[in-house]
Write a structure and sequence with these properties.
This is YafY family transcriptional regulator. By secondary structure, this protein is an alpha+beta fold. The protein has helices spanning 3-16, 22-29, 33-45, 75-90, 96-108, 112-122, 134-149, 220-231, 249-257, 259-263, 282-290, 302-320; strands at 51-53, 59-61, 151-158, 165-178, 181-188, 193-198, 202-211, 240-247, 265-269, 272-278, 296-300. The protein has four domains: 3-61, Winged helix-like DNA-binding domain superfamily/Winged helix DNA-binding domain (Arc Repressor Mutant, subunit A), CATH 1.10.10; 75-122; 136-229, SH3 type barrels (Roll), CATH 2.30.30; 237-320, Alpha-Beta Plaits.
């Protein structure tokens, strides 16, 4: 039997009997006594309250006050877990090996009909993303270990798309997956403030002996989103201008789902979307709106229309020549 099977067998033997020694467990399961010791240690690490009593009348036992109910998943729960695992793997989830073991356990304790149904459903959902870089998984695992141990992390960080690389010390508070990229959010000792860092721009990661405390109730997701909106100028409503766009409901739905435009949405009707944007971002929005072709129409401001006309003319001239 596998280690997981041995652990489960030991668990139920101890629960069904008052007390058993390591020798009795080894004989009952026909395994080596050292395997029993390793399984007992693994069960204790996983949180099972196994009591060890030394001496002639000693042995291992589980207190009667502890209830160990078997954990079963129905068909829909199994499907949801398998689909969630697919998303995690394609996103470059750092603990893919452990995730694979968890999925294997679900399959191992299923009957043939359940297993066939799970394997069929597992292939019903697929995710298209850039192939995760093996070095990125290693970096993510290092960041995750740093967070778990609450020990500062030293990294060589490349700023932007240039060649400037600087050694930094970071206290990572959380990881965020956004637009196919992983971000580590935490305190930067160089800048002396909380910053976000793209993990794919990190190299030479090294966990230090310096500890840190994660701020209570801190949300890495909220910090990253707030910082992006601040860069877009949306935090200062005094400088916001109205952008009204007409179009088909489907096109407007896609517009409102954009991370920037969605947070700038002020009013929405079936055929009109009203946004409030910072003026310097109009050119960026114009480039994005070009992809919608004739499915949308700019109602206001005139400046946004002129941006689109100028960009389209410039692109036309560029490709013509």
């Amino acid at each position: 039997m596998s280690k997981a099977d041995n652990m489960l067998a030991i668990l139920w033997l101890l629960k069904s009997r008052r007390k058993m020694t390591a020798k009795q467990l080894a004989e009952r399961l026909e395994i080596h006594i050292r395997t029993v010791y390793r399984c007992i240690d693994a069960l204790c690490v996983s949180g099972v309250p196994i009591v060890s009593e030394p001496g002639r009348e000693g042995g291992y036992s589980i207190p009667d006050s502890i209830k160990l109910e078997p954990l079963f998943f129905d068909a829909e729960e199994q499907k949801a877990l398998l689909h969630a695992a697919t998303f995690a793997r394609e996103a470059g989830y750092p603990s893919e090996e452990a995730l694979g073991r968890a999925v294997a356990k679900i399959k191992r304790f299923s009957n043939p009909d359940q297993l066939a149904r799970m394997e069929r459903r597992e292939t019903n959902l697929e995710v298209i993303q850039p192939p995760p870089d093996p070095s990125l998984r290693a970096a993510l695992a290092e960041v995750e270990t740093s967070m778990d141990l609450q020990l500062s992390l030293e990294v060589d960080y490349m700023t932007g798309y240039g060649d400037t690389v600087r050694r930094r010390t970071i206290d990572p508070y959380g990881l965020v997956h956004w637009k196919s990229k992983w971000y580590a959010v935490g305190y930067c000792h160089l800048r002396e403030e909380i910053r976000s860092f793209r993990v794919d721009r990190m190299s030479g990661l090294s966990i230090t002996d310096s500890g840190f405390q994660r701020p209570p109730h801190f949300s890495a997701r909220e910090f990253l989103l707030d910082s992006l909106l601040a860069e877009s100028g949306l935090e200062n409503e005094a400088h916001l201008i109205s952008v009204r766009i007409q179009g088909s409901p489907q096109a407007l739905d896609d517009l409102c789902a954009h991370w920037l435009l969605g947070h700038a949405l002020a009013e929405r009707t079936p055929e009109l979307a009203h946004f409030k944007l910072d003026e310097p971002k109009l050119a960026q929005v114009a480039y994005y709106l070009l992809s919608y072709g004739g499915t949308i129409r700019i109602v206001e401001p005139l400046e946004l229309k002129e941006y689109i006309v100028d960009i389209a003319a410039s692109l036309s001239e560029y490709h013509r020549t």
